[in-house]
Amino acid sequence: MDKLTELESLLRRIGSAYSSKWTYALTDLGSGERIGLGGDDVMPTASLIKVPILVSLYRAVHEGSIKLADRIRYREDQRCLGSGVLIHLTPGVEMAVRDAAVLMIIISDNVATNMVIDLVGLERVNETMRSLGLDKTTLFQRLGDTKAGLDARKMSVSTGREIARLLELIARRQAVSPEASEDMLRIMRRQDYRHELSRLLPWNELNRLDNHKENWVAEKGGSFLNGIRASGAIFHGPRGTFVLASFCEGGTRPGSGRNAEGNELLGELGYAAWHQLAAAEASDSVDSANVQPGFGLPEHG
Q: Are 117 and 142 in contact (CB under 8 A)?
């Protein structure tokens, strides 16, 4: 059995005890081979939509309508509860466009996200996704807009396959331009929140992996009510590079916040894929024969 077929079986076994719906899509960038489950199913993205917004920003920069060094100001109407730091600051704060993009990704700042959406334009975000062949990835409203109520599917949606494809374009330096893709990777690699697909990797006090120039994860996650968890990541290690996108919705097992059922599932999926496809030691790969249904990977230190 080849390693991707073995991994596909392993991922299904890991997720078999999840209490509700989950999907994933994975592409090995070395071979181009793909595996997945429900990869075309439309799922709520929560903050994972910030990656399409980031790509749309860099497309606008590439086309010359925006400069990353331009200054933008935080307005009162851009306030939004949830993650980030700007909600705790007084409106009127100014920053460079790129700084807003950094806050949007590395600490998932919702106010910074609204600043970027307003700058780029909501419809332009969706048009950029269509131009890349991503027909289901859609941003319906600014963050904090009350029209959707608490229905995450009326805020933004995508699929595992489309997020994996977008990450593949970034990883191959084909999203917008090579320079833009490189800068997006640089931002995503500085992610402060490692709560989903990479949560079980051995991060140190500096939020880095050992030999961090060779071992790294560029990622973005998201969470919302009703057990919604979403994550997309580019994993790079000595034995390979792959992209993985996964969504969970409706999980009912005990646990909340970063210890919710969806976070546990995503962490196990990412850990298994990392050791199968990219980690330094092939001997560290996970033996699917020893995995019990559910979140039953061997202990990881």
A: yes
